[in-house]
UniProtKB/TrEMBL annotation:
It holds the Pfam family MmgE_PrpD_C. Residues 288-475 form the MmgE/PrpD C-terminal domain. The keyword Lyase applies. Its EC number is 4.2.1.79. Monomer. Belongs to the PrpD family. Keywords: Lyase. One of its GO terms (molecular function) is 2-methylcitrate dehydratase activity. This is 2-methylcitrate dehydratase. Transmembrane segments: none annotated.
């Protein structure tokens, strides 16, 4: 059973009791020692595999190399065993492992997603929670309960409170959810979790400029920063330090000044006491390395490549118009008014937020590859540029409605495409959800997660190391206390050159 909690701004003289504050209600959910269902257990294992896949594939990308170098400059802190860093056999201080692994997981924009009033990658909860678990010698069962909490809180916040409408980055929901998950992990009292949630939110509100225009390498760092802040917030509140209160509802708080203002009103769904945390089951992963709204369009483009090969030649095409949701149109479509989305020299981070580029390449190639589809020579190919510049997006109210629908059966992230050929004929097709979506043509199952891992780990991780990891993660509920370093994956010899890491200040 889900309970809806009304949330609004309160004047200081109203003196909103702690029990009425959203951060306290989040803390109560985190402290509720409910059992994890078998279905949720299986999905948590899937997402740990998924995170490992995308982290492995990004080990030698510049943001990951830099973040790893920063982490290894911070040795294990005094009160625990430290935490592991993806790719290497070395322990560092937990908050820095959360940082390095958070960047590795997010860098390729290739892991799970949940979209509702706000956008999110709930798998971003795993690096900070796992780092805290390794540092404290937790068990697999402890980690399982904690990750279920992280997903639950983030998904529930995303269902209710829009951040992007006010140009606040979506990681503002991640700081509180990760802090709550760590609270569950450690069995902390609601009072401690409450202050950790407040501090984590207070320190992770930032603008969406990191996802606008010429998108920088900070895109991968933003969720890692939120995870690191969550670890540090828990550390402080365990030492008795408090948070700004009420952080959400205060007259100078987040809602009043960063979101919908003093007249705002939300209803946040949270599990009732004793209710299992099942929100991870509402989330979905990516088959393709691109912004989630591009997933269905890649699948449709692949289908059109096979059915209508003539549309791959720009000489045959007068225009391609993608009718889609408001979000897809204004964030990754031509409605963003970002010329970089049509620039062959744009960064990878920019191209994976350009549906005109992604649809064009998938249409021409009949596939999508996490490296080759973004290669500079691929982006600059003359026939691709010519076709790419014929692709525009428009908002369709019906696809916007379906995008925001709370009915999982009709919620959609696709749309309709109209391809007008130079001879005047028109080809139309549509798609609602990606093939890998739970309601798609080929929903992702355990075998697909493992296949994705093997694909991305090829040439990076030795087979024996991969099999060791898979055996450990699939036995997650049975992993004893102090054994969670088994969930790290070490790259093969020579894959990582630590001496080549950039030097910084610290």
């Amino acid at each position: 059973m889900v309970e809806l909690h009304p949330v609004r701004v309160h004047r200081s003289e109203e003196n909103l009791p702690r029990e009425g504050q959203l951060a306290w209600k989040i803390a109560q959910v985190a402290a509720d020692p409910v059992e994890v269902t078998d279905e949720v257990t299986d999905m948590v294992i899937n997402r740990i595999i998924d995170n490992a896949s995308v982290a492995i594939a990004s080990l030698n990308r510049a943001p990951v190399v830099a973040a790893r170098a920063q982490a290894t400059s911070h040795p294990v802190s005094a009160h625990g065993a430290g935490a592991a860093v993806f790719g290497i056999d070395e322990r560092v201080s937990a908050e820095w492992a959360a940082w390095a692994n958070g960047v590795a997981v997010r860098e390729l924009d290739y892991h799970d997603t949940f979209l509702a009033a706000e956008y999110s990658h709930p798998g971003d909860n795993i690096p900070p929670i796992l780092a805290a678990a390794q540092h404290t010698g937790a068990s697999g069962a402890d980690l399982l309960r904690a990750i279920a909490t992280g997903y639950e809180i983030q998904v529930d916040l995303v269902k209710a409170i829009s951040l992007h409408k006010h140009k606040i980055d979506h990681v503002a929901h991640l700081g509180p959810s990760a802090a709550a998950g760590i609270g569950t992990l450690l069995g902390l009292a609601p009072e401690v979790i409450f202050h950790a949630v407040g501090q984590a939110l207070h320190t992770t509100t930032a603008t969406r400029q990191s996802r606008k225009g010429e998108i920088s390498t900070w895109k991968a760092h933003a969720p890692a920063f939120a995870g690191k802040m969550a670890v540090e917030a828990v550390d402080r509140t365990m030492r008795g330090q408090t948070s700004p209160t009420p952080i959400y509802e205060g007259e100078d708080g987040v809602i009043a000044w960063l979101l919908d203002g003093p007249d705002a009103a939300y209803e946040v769904p949270l599990p009732a006491p004793g209710e299992a945390k099942r929100a991870i089951l509402d989330t979905y992963t990516k088959e393709h390395s691109a912004e989630y709204q591009a997933q269905a369009w890649i699948d449709l483009a692949r289908r059109l490549n096979e059915a209508h090969p003539e549309v791959t030649d720009p000489d045959n095409v007068a225009s391609i118009v993608i009718h889609t949701s408001h979000h897809t149109h204004v964030v990754i479509g031509s409605g963003a008014n970002d010329p970089q989305k049509y620039d062959p020299s744009a960064s990878r981070e920019t191209l994976d937020h350009s549906i005109p580029y992604i649809f064009t390449v998938a249409l021409q190639d009949g596939r999508w590859h996490h490296e080759e589809s973004y290669a500079p020579d691929r982006a600059a190919r003359p026939d691709t540029v010519a076709l790419w510049h014929k692709v525009t997006t428009v908002e369709d109210p019906e696809w916007t409605r379906r995008y925001h629908s709370l009915d999982i059966a009709e919620k959609a992230f696709g749309g309709r495409v109209e391809i007008t050929l130079t001879d005047g004929s028109v080809i139309t097709d549509e798609i609602a959800v990606a093939d890998a979506h739970p309601l798609g043509a080929r929903p992702f199952a355990r075998a697909d997660y493992i296949a994705k891992l093997r694909l991305l780990a090829a040439g990076v991780v030795d087979d024996a190391e991969l099999e060791r990891f898979l055996a450990a993660v699939q036995d997650l509920p049975g992993l004893p206390a102090g054994s969670l370093d088994q969930l790290n994956v070490v790259a093969g010899p020579g894959v990582i050159d630590a001496a080549a890491a950039p030097q910084g200040l610290l």
